[in-house]
Structure formats: structure tokens, C-alpha cells
Amino acid sequence: MILPLGPMHPGYKEPIRLKVKTRGERVLKAEIEYGYVHRGIERVMRNKTWQKAIYLSERVCGICSYIHTQTFAEAFERISDTEAPPRAQFLRALTNELDRIQSHLIANSTYFKALDHETMFMYMLALREPVMDAIELLTGNRVNMGWNVVGGVRMDADKSHLSRIRKIILDLEREFDRYVEMFEHGPLIGLRSRDVGYMSLEEAEKARAVGPIGRASGIRYDFREDHPTYRDHLDFRTVWRDEGDNFARVMNRFDEIRVSADLIKQIIDNIPEGPVRKKVDIGSGYGEWRNEAPRGEVAYMIETNGNLIKNISIRTPSIMNIDACARYMLRDVATVADAVATYASADPCIACAERVMVIDEEKGEREILL
Amino acid sequence: MLDALKSVLRKTSIHVCLVNTGGCNGCDIEVLALLSPRYDLEQYGIYVHQNPREADVILVTGAVTEQWRDKLQRIHRKAPEPKIVVALGNCPISGDVFNQEGGSVYAPVSDFIPVDAEVPGCPPRPSEILEAILAVAPGAIAERGRKK
């Protein structure tokens, strides 16, 4: 029988419909129905200056809102053939890592909620709140920060702010190992997670899975390795696993939180002095920039005409991951409850995955818009 | 006697259904943050269920997109009386940044369903959301229950 899950479902943060084909309790295959939160961001962005469009790019997705503005600003810097001052680059990397920690914690908490493990769900959210405080301390806001501008960041960070962030991260690391051990060696959660929702390396490559989902299946790739700030100034290593099940995906996110915490300490130790913003003369032309968002690689392709955006295309990681989840992970899962948990382990973010295809019949043109 | 008991109980068990009608997800994670031990929503007798059939409070986040135009009213009809609707964030109030030329949103939400309270902010802080629900929900629900 076909069992519809959603668009309103206790396990989901956002509206999406998952149609699963079942025989008894066993889930045979799944199909995804999008279209509930398409807002037409790319079309609104056209013919606007960057000062207006950067707020729209922030609202592509609420959880990883920070990285969208950074990629947007860096794409514009690329078009203008310039770079942000070194201190601004370090501050951007710092906020990016803080944002990654909170995003991974919320993703894992959602997974534990889908498993009905209320205790771990609460632990994860309790760990997340101090990180949100750190973000608020640095940028002045919790979720949509408005922190990036083309040519740098909006405000400078105080020395006392940085030392408080360092203390928050040290506290997090101290608590963190205990919770990871609970998950890694706990027999109950382990049994519900291991060998559920398996995706092999070939399948992950075929579905173009990115981010922690791809890395949990053995794709050894993290775009931060190629980012100028990380490549030149910071000691960074990609974490990956090869099990490819729910356990690996959750553990991969836990490992990445450790790497992020380590990066934050490096950034605070090595941050250079200097200005945080410089004036940029926006040039005309085409620019492209990629970054590693918490969920994978995000790319901005921008074409400008003087100061105005002529055309923009945003590629977000979630769309590939959700597709990989529906096609490969949700295949022959033992129970419907496991199917919901597998879906949560893929960390779907619907707000950035919504696309609409506009077909002009007379001209024979097609265009896909976010 | 029964009515008095009902109005006391209604004040202490508020079931919330969160409906994202096309926002950026920011308000949703602030509601999720409310569940965390720091804010602890459940100590006030508020439970987030995402089930319209047992909801007392419908929290609407997001400007209304094409798909939600008829579905939002259906969800509102499914919730039993007495119920209240809280519009959370700038999107359901005005459409926020999406309500410009080229966007496909149909804000405000009050065009589709009656709204009792509005919490502006992009997104509002968790404490503001909590304060808004507590300021409106218990009184309004008990009062509407009595009218019935």
C-alpha cells in the first residue's frame, strides 16, 4: 500500500510529502513530492543591487543562512576581482564554523527525535544554545545575521568577545565526548541506526550526494580544502566514513563538530589585526563561487550588469541529498519508523530545495528557478 | 462545574500545531529551540505536536505560497474549536522580503484565515514567541470555550 507521510508530520521541521510504498511494515520504495515552500527568490533578486539581494540570499534557508551570504559576497568579490581583508576572512570562517556546529547539532537532534530518543534530543538542543549565544555575541543576531557585506563583514569583533567564544567552545568540547560516546556505544540507539538506510559509494556518486551525507558513504571531498582562507591559513582535514548507514551519517556530523571546534580555536589564536571591510567597485561580468555549507556544497553563479544583478543561479546541497535519500536510502527499510529516521538522518532542508520549472511553449525555452 | 474545570484545564494544556506555509525555516528552528532545556516550553503546559486535529494554537510561519492557498484553510478547519492562530515572524504579516515583484507569495495570512496574534521579527527570539503564546493563548482559548 502507499502510505503518505506529510506534508504535516511530527517528525518534519518543514512541509514535504513522502509517499512510501509498503508491504506490511516493510518500506519498499519512496517518492518525494516537493512544492510547498517555493517563493521565487531568484526571480525577485533580478535587477536588484547587492545591498538588497544579500538579504534575500540569507533567507534561502534559515538553518544555514550564514553561508549563503558569505558565498554571495565572495561571488561579488570575485566579479570585482578583489578579496576581503584578512581579518574579515578569518571572522567569516569563524562564523561559518559556529553556524556549522549549530546546524549539525540541530540535524542530529532531529534524528534522535525521529528515533523517539527524547534524552539525546534534549542534550543536543542544550549543547546548541551556548553556540547560538556565541553567534549572537559575534553578529548580534541568532538566525538571520545580516553580517556579511561585499568587501568584508559589518562589524569588528572585540577581544573579549573572542575569548568568550573560546570559552563556550571549550565547554562544548568537554561535554561533547560524553554524548558522542552515548550514541556510539549505546546498544539501543546503535541497533536502531546501524545498517539502516544503507547507501553505497557508487550510489552516492550516482545521486551526487554532497556534504556529510556523501562523506558518510565514502566520498572523500570537502570544499573547505579548496577555500583560500582554509587552504592558506588553517590546518584542516576532511573527515569521512565508509559505512554509509544512518549511524555513519550521524557520527560524521559529530566528527565534523569536533573539527569545527578545533578550527574555531585556531582562528581565534591566529586572527590578524586590521580593517574588516573595504570599499569595492562592483564590476560587470560573470562570477562563480562555491563554499561548503553545513549540508554540502553551495554554489552561486551571478551575472552582473554594472551594479545590478542581471541573472543569478543558486545551487544548494539539499536537493541532491533529498533525492539520494528517496532513491537509495529508503529502499527496503525494515519499518516505517526507520524510514522516518532515515529521512531525518539525511538532514533535509526543504526551504532551499524548492525549484520550479518555467516552460515557454512558444519559444521552446525552459528555465529552472529557486 | 464542568465548564469551570474545562477552562482551568484548557489553560494548562495548550497543543500547538506549527504550519510552515513557505518561509525560510528560521522561525521553525526558533520554535525548536523553545523545546530545549533552556526555555522548556512544556513547563508552561504547551506541547508542540504538528497535528492540526488536536491543536489549540496554530502557529503560522511563512508567507503563503501557491500550494498553501487552499490547504491552509483546510488545516484551519481541521483544528477543533476553541482555537487561536498566531502569525510568527514577518512573513505571515507582510510577506517579508519575498513579497516583491517576481516572488510567488500571497501574504498576508490574515487574507486566508483569521489571525489572533502577530509576533514580528525575522525571526523573533524564542522568548518573544513564548511570551506571545502565553499572553494570548490561555485567556482566549478559555474565553472562546465558554462562549461555545
Automatic annotation (TrEMBL), chain A:
Residues annotated to bind Fe cation? 64, 352
Q: Which residues form the NADH-quinone oxidoreductase subunit D domain?
A: 118-278, 290-355
**One example GO MF annotation:** nickel cation binding
Per UniProt, Mg(2+) binds at 42, 314
Q: Which cofactor does it need?
A: Ni(2+); Fe cation
Protein name, please?
Nickel-dependent hydrogenase large subunit
Please report the organism this UniProt entry assigns to the protein.
Methanothermobacter wolfeii
Q: Which domain of life is it from?
A: Archaea
The record, for SUPFAM superfamilies, names: HydB/Nqo4-like
Hydrolase recorded as keyword: no
- Which keywords annotate this record? Iron, Magnesium, Metal-binding, Nickel, Oxidoreductase
Residues where Ni(2+) binds: 61, 64, 349
Short name of one Pfam family? Complex1_49kDa
TrEMBL record, chain B:
Enumerate the spans annotated as NADH:ubiquinone oxidoreductase-like 20kDa subunit domain.
24-135
Q: Which Pfam families match?
A: Oxidored_q6
What SUPFAM superfamilies does UniProt report for this protein, alphabetically? HydA/Nqo6-like
Instruction: Please give the Gene Ontology molecular function terms for this protein.
Output: 4 iron, 4 sulfur cluster binding; metal ion binding; oxidoreductase activity
Known InterPro entries for this protein? Complex_I_20kDa-like, NADH_UbQ_OxRdtase-like_20kDa
- This entry's Enzyme Commission designation comes to 1.-.-.-
Cofactor(s) needed, names only, are: [4Fe-4S] cluster
Asked if the record carries the keyword Isomerase, the reply is no
Identify the keywords attached in UniProt to this record, alphabetized. 4Fe-4S, Iron, Iron-sulfur, Metal-binding, Oxidoreductase
Concerning PANTHER family, the annotation shows: FORMATE HYDROGENLYASE SUBUNIT 7-RELATED (PTHR42989:SF1), HYDROGENASE-4 COMPONENT I (PTHR42989)
Task: Report the family membership.
Answer: Belongs to the complex I 20 kDa subunit family.
What is the protein named? NADH-quinone oxidoreductase subunit B family protein
- Species this chain originates from: Methanothermobacter wolfeii
